[in-house]
Amino acid sequence: MNVMRAQEISESPVMAHVTYDGTPIYIQHVDEQKHTARIYALEDPDNELEVSLDSLLEES
User: Fold this and answer.
1) Residues 43, 60: contact at Cβ < 8 Å?
2) Helix (H) or strand (E) holding 14
């Protein structure tokens, strides 16, 4: 996923269908410098991860 799209998703009030390793996630923050995002699984909001934007997939 590119930085601009990840940023749009994280700022949008509408929930996008994004997955990380097959798991639906929520993007909390995008770090443009490191090309990463702070995310959490929708089913486990207490477990935050910082992952590469390349590992995120937007489902249509």
Assistant:
1) no
2) none
